[in-house]
UniProtKB/TrEMBL annotation:
It comes from Halogeometricum borinquense. Belongs to the radical SAM superfamily. MoaA family. This is Probable GTP 3',8-cyclase. Binds 2 [4Fe-4S] clusters. Binds 1 [4Fe-4S] cluster coordinated with 3 cysteines and an exchangeable S-adenosyl-L-methionine and 1 [4Fe-4S] cluster coordinated with 3 cysteines and the GTP-derived substrate. GTP binds at residues 14, 68, 96, 157, 253-255. It catalyses: GTP + AH2 + S-adenosyl-L-methionine = (8S)-3',8-cyclo-7,8-dihydroguanosine 5'-triphosphate + 5'-deoxyadenosine + L-methionine + A + H(+). Keywords: 4Fe-4S, GTP-binding, Iron, Iron-sulfur, Lyase, Metal-binding, Molybdenum cofactor biosynthesis, Nucleotide-binding, S-adenosyl-L-methionine. Pathway: Cofactor biosynthesis; molybdopterin biosynthesis. The gene is moaA. CDD domains: Radical_SAM (cd01335). The keyword ATP-binding does not apply.
Length: 319
C-alpha cells in the first residue's frame, strides 16, 4: 500500500462516476466540483466502463482494498452493475446514491458484487425532503432503502446532512435506525466552504454531546477517527471533517472525478491529474504522484493563524 508523506496509507479510492443528477439538493457540493450538474442530459466527458476498470486494476496492484462509487447520481450510469462486476475481487465495493433508482436494480447490484450502500435521506418528512432535494421522490427513496435491505446489502446507511433545514429531524432519524435492524445513520457535518451558505451551519459538537448521553456504547472508527454511537439496534456515525485536523490526519482515500482526474483531497482542485487515454504504466505513475503530493487539508494545507482563523499555508500559495 502506498503511504503519503504524512504517514497516511491509501487503502481506498472514491470514484465519481458522473456529475449528472436527477435531484438538485440545496447544499450539494458535487464531490468538490461545484454546481456543474445538468439534470439527466447525457454527458460525453465521463470515464468509460473500461477506463474505470483499468484504473481499479492498477490500484489493486498497490493494495487498495476498497472502492466507493459516487457522483452526481452514480445510478444514472447504466453500466454500474458491469463496473461492479468487473471490480477486482479483492476490493470491497460500496455505493453512495440518492436511492431513487434502487427499486428494481438493487438485486442486480448485489449480484454483481456490491457489498453495501449509503442512501441520502435527510428527513422522514416528505415536505422537508422535497424542499431540500427539489424533488417529489420521497416515497421512491423509501422504496429504494427497502429494496436495498431486501437485496441483502449490509449495512444500508442513511446519509443525513446536518444543517439548518434538517436539524429538527435528527432525533427522529436516530430513533428510526435504533428501531430498524439493518439500517445505520451517518450524520454529515454540513460543509459550507463548497456551497457558499455559511448561515445554514449547525454546531456538530452539540450533536456529539447529545448522542454521548443517549448511546449505550461509543467507538472510534479508524478512518477519519469518526465516532460511532450505538443506540438501541442501530449505529450512528458522525462525519465531521470541517476544520478537523484529526479527521484529515486519518484520511486514507484518493479520489477520481467523473472525467477521470486523480485528486488527493475533496476540498482541493489544484492537484488534478487527468488520466485521459493514459496507458496502465502512466496511470501507475500518476497515481504514485497523487499519493506523494497528498497533504492533510486541515492542519497542513490550511493552518490556523494567530487569530485562530484558517488560512492557506504559505508553502502552498502559488505552488
Ligand atoms: N471533507 C471530507 N468529507 C468527506 C470525506 N469522506 C466523506 N465525506 C463526507 O461524507 C459524505 C458522505 O460520504 P459517503 O459517500 O456516504 O461515504 P463515506 O461516509 O465517506 O464512507 P463509508 O462510511 O465507508 O461508506 C461525503 O459526500 C462528504 O460530504 C472526506 O474524506 N473528506
Ligand atoms: C454528492 S452526493 C453523491 C451521491 C448521491 N447523489 C447522493 O446524494 O447520495 C454524496 C453525499 O454528499 C453529501 N453532501 C453533498 N453536499 C454536502 C455538503 N455541502 N455538506 C455535507 N455533505 C454534503 C450528500 O448528502 C450525499 O450524502
Ligand atoms: S442527490 Fe446527491 S449529487 Fe444529487 S444533488 Fe443531491 S447530494 Fe448532490
Ligand atoms: S484531507 Fe481532509 S478534507 Fe481532504 S479529503 Fe481527506 S479528510 Fe477530506
Amino acid at each position: 500500500m502506498l503511504v503519503d508523506d504524512f504517514g497516511r496509507e491509501v487503502s481506498g479510492v472514491r470514484i465519481s462516476l458522473t456529475d449528472r443528477c436527477n435531484f438538485d439538493c440545496v447544499y450539494c457540493h458535487n464531490e468538490g466540483l461545484g454546481d456543474t450538474r445538468g439534470p439527466m442530459e447525457p454527458s460525453d466527458d465521463e470515464m468509460s466502463t473500461d477506463d474505470v476498470v483499468r484504473f481499479l486494476e492498477v490500484v489493486e496492484e498497490f493494495g487498495v482494498e476498497k472502492v466507493k462509487f459516487t457522483g452526481g447520481e452514480p445510478m444514472l450510469r447504466q453500466d454500474l452493475a458491469e463496473i461492479i462486476r468487473r471490480t477486482p475481487e479483492s476490493m470491497e465495493s460500496s455505493l453512495t446514491t440518492n436511492g431513487t433508482f434502487l427499486p428494481g436494480r438493487a438485486e442486480d447490484l448485489k449480484e454483481a458484487g456490491l457489498s453495501r450502500v449509503n442512501v441520502s435521506q435527510d428527513a422522514l418528512d416528505p415536505e422537508a425532503f422535497a424542499e431540500i432535494t427539489k424533488s417529489g421522490a420521497y416515497d421512491n427513496v423509501l422504496e429504494g432503502v427497502q429494496a436495498a435491505l431486501d437485496a441483502g446489502l449490509d449495512p444500508v446507511k442513511l446519509n443525513m446532512v446536518v444543517f439548518e433545514h434538517t436539524a429538527g429531524y435528527v432525533e427522529e432519524m436516530v430513533d428510526h435506525v435504533a428501531e430498524n435492524p439493518g439500517l445505520q445513520l451517518q450524520l454529515i457535518e454540513y460543509m459550507p466552504e463548497l456551497t457558499g451558505r455559511p448561515e445554514w451551519n449547525i454546531d456538530i459538537q452539540r450533536v456529539h454531546d447529545w448522542l454521548e448521553g443517549k448511546a449505550d456504547r461509543v467507538e472510534m472508527r479508524e478512518m477519519h477517527h469518526r465516532r460511532r454511537y450505538y443506540v438501541g439496534q442501530g449505529m450512528v456515525e458522525i462525519v465531521d471533517p470541517v476544520e478537523n485536523e484529526d479527521f484529515c490526519a486519518n484520511c486514507h482515500r484518493v479520489r477520481v472525478t467523473h472525467e477521470g482526474y486523480l485528486k488527493g483531497c475533496l476540498n482541493r482542485n489544484d492537484d488534478l491529474r487527468p488520466m485521459g487515454q493514459m496507458t496502465r504504466g502512466e496511470i501507475r505513475e500518476a497515481y504514485r504522484e497523487t499519493v506523494a503530493n497528498r497533504v492533510p487539508y486541515y492542519g497542513e494545507y490550511l493552518v490556523q493563524d494567530e487569530d485562530d482563523e484558517w488560512v492557506i499555508n504559505e508553502k502552498y500559495i502559488g505552488a
